[in-house]
Structure formats: C-alpha cells, structure tokens
Amino acid sequence: MNPGIWQSFRDAYWFWALVPIAALLLWRLTRKGPQSAVFYFSSDRASLDSWVAKGRRSLYLLRFLALGFLVAALARPQTSGVNTRTTTTEGIDIVLSIDVSSSMLAKDLKPNRLEALKEVASKFVLDRLNDRLGLVVYAGESYTKTPLTTDTEITLSALKELDYGAIEDGTAIGMGLATAVNRLKESDGLSKVIILLTDGVNNSGFIEPQTAANMALEYGIKIYTIGIGTNGNSLTPIAYNADGSFRYGMRTVEIDEQLLEEIASLTGGAYYRATDNQSLEEIYDEINQLEKTEVEEFSFYTYDEHYRFWVIAALTLLLIEALLKYTLFKEALS
Fold first, then answer.
1. Tell me, what DSSP letter sits at residue 245?
2. Are 141 and 205 in contact (CB under 8 A)?
C-alpha cells in the first residue's frame, strides 16, 4: 500500500455535513436580486460591472470551499503506516507409515495401490504446510525414509521415490508402526499423529502391532489406520516371470481390519477402508480436516493522520478571502 495516498477516512460520517453546505451554496448561486445591501451612485456603475466588483461578489465561494476542507479534516483522513503481522503456529507432527510390499502393486486401484497412494498422499502433504511430516516405509522390515521436516519438497520427493523392492517383502505392521513411534516419541509438537496404511495381514517382523500401539499410547500419539484394497478379489503379483517382471493373478484381498480398528481405537484415532481411488482420497481429506493446525495471526497497524493539511488549506482560503475583501476588492464598496 502506498503511504502517500489517503487510504480511508476514520470518521467518514462527517461528510454528511456537506449536504447542507451544498444546499446553501446552491441557494446562494441561484437566488435573484442584490446579494448585499449596498447603495450605488451613477458614477460607480462602470466599476460595478468591472472585474473588481464581480470578484468581490464571488468571494463567498472561498468560504464554502474552506468549509468543505474543514469537513474533510473532521473526517480524519489516514494512511496505514507500519503493518506488523505476527503468526503463531501450533503445528502437528505427522508420520506417514506406508506399506510397500509386493501386494501394493495390485491393480484394484488405478494404476495400482502404491501409485494411487503416492498421488493422494502428495496432495495431503501440500495441504500441511504448517506441520512437520516424516515418512516411514515398511514391508518385511521398516526404515525411516525422511525424518520430521517442514520442507515440503523433501517429503514430496521421498513419496515420489517409493517403490517395491527396496526392502525384504512381507507385511510387518508392528515394525512399521514402531519405527513411526520412534520418530515421534521425542517430538514437542502440539499433536502427534501416525497415519498407517497397509493392504494385508501382519506376517513379518519381531514387534507385535499391539505392542507398538501401546508404545504410541504411552507417548500420546494418535494413530489413524487405513486398509487399502477392494472387497473380494484383485489382480495381484503372484510370481516372477523369466525376465524378472511380475506375473499377475487373481487373489483374495485379506486385510486384518479387526487389528487395524483396535490399534486406532486404543490411541483415539480411527480406522478407514479404501476400496478405490476416490475413497482413498476422501479418507485423506477427512483426516486432513480432523487434524487441523491452529494458526493465530496478529496484525498491528499504525496510522498517519492527514487532517492538518485540510485545516491549513481551509485557514489559508479564509485568510485569502479576508485579504482580498479588505485590500484589492475594497473599492467595490466605495
């Protein structure tokens, strides 16, 4: 904003005073007859038509203009000076714990479960600009892909790199959960959240999911669990071809929903089932709404007053009127 331009009038209601002033000016301009009780003599008629006489009869316009300036001064014209904005963010620390086992390549979500998840999770990350996010991946074992960070680009890049094959195959839900808890246990965030996604049944690892859930409870961590996969059968990797690519076949989708519900319920979270791309996106949207970051913004303004200009202008006009009335235009009364 430009401090040299009047931005607003603090007491703009004073402009209503211009209505009677304008009405009085209009009456003065349109009334007929002599405007002052002056006796004229024949010897003065030439001067009455002169510019001096006409000028004196117009001096009242300066008075009306001065009144308008005084009204503007009373309305208190201001410009905004210093605008100091302080933002206080009470952020949430969130760890995404993602299953990258071979079954995540099943094609019941398009183009497959893992790619659908990466797309939806990336949108979720972009909505959490005031939070710290971390990424844990697991299959038969688990590891931290990225620690807690506010750097959105790092998290998005790590999500993009997710793929099957980096670690031993399997579904170690307890390990994936325990690694996420380890990332959050020392956190000083206002709220600590794990979003754990899997498409199977715990069948690997040396930490039981219930044990990891109790650890989360001890550290005040809330867990949201998501089971991903259609109801029934899906086209899933079942073997390797000679060239090393996957051979796909129909396989029944098995998700330990009871376990996932227990984990979520224990920590005050919730369990969701994503059977297609749209429901997966809706789940992340709902969690995004449930776990809102509190942002307080305080703005401090200082204002520069500009009424002095209008007062000085009004007094100047009145002074000019008086000087003209008793000097240059004084002869009009002679």
1. P
2. yes
Distances (CA, A) of 157 to 103, 111, 153, 162: 23, 20, 6, 9
Work out the angle between the directed axes of helices 277-290 and 113-126 (0-180°, nearest 10): 30
Beta bridge partners of residue 9, listed in sequence order: 77
Instruction: Give all domains of the chain, ordered by start, each with its CATH number.
Output: 10-32+39-79+306-333 (no CATH), 88-296 (3.40.50.410)
Contacting residues for 70 by C-beta, under 8 A, at least 6 apart: 310, 311, 314
Q: How far apart are CA 192 and CA 70, in angstroms?
A: 60
| Residue 242: Cβ-neighbour burial (10 angstroms; 0-12, 13-18, 19+) | exposed
Per-residue tokens: 96: 């995404």
Rounded to whole angstroms, the Cα distance separating 310 from 313 reads 5
pLDDT of the residue at 37: 40
- What count of other Cβ atoms lies within 10 Å of the Cβ of residue 103? 27
b/e for 314-323, b at 16 or more Cβ within 10 A?
Answer: beebbeebee
Strand ordering across the sheet containing 77-90:
8-9, 77-90, 294-305
* Integer Cα distance of 225 and 265 in angstroms: 10
| Among the listed residues 82, 119, 74, 77, the one whose alpha carbon sits nearest the alpha carbon of residue 98 | 119
Residue 219's identity, in one-letter code, is Y
Q: How far apart, in whole angstroms, are the C-alpha atoms of residue 302 and residue 54?
A: 48
Six-digit token string for 171: 């579904």
Q: How does the average pLDDT of the chain come out, rounded? A: 84
What are the structure tokens assigned to 116, written together?
A: 């659908």
- For 309, which DSSP code? H
Collect the ranges in the chain with pLDDT lower than 70: 1-7, 32-57, 80-90, 294-302, 328-334
> What single-letter amino acid sits at 169?
D
CA distances from 134 to 153, 181, 243 (A): 12, 11, 35
Cis peptide before 20 (omega within 30 of 0): no
List, for residues 189-219, the tens digit of each pLDDT value.
889 999 999 999 999 999 999 999 999 999 9
Tokens of 111: 């183009």
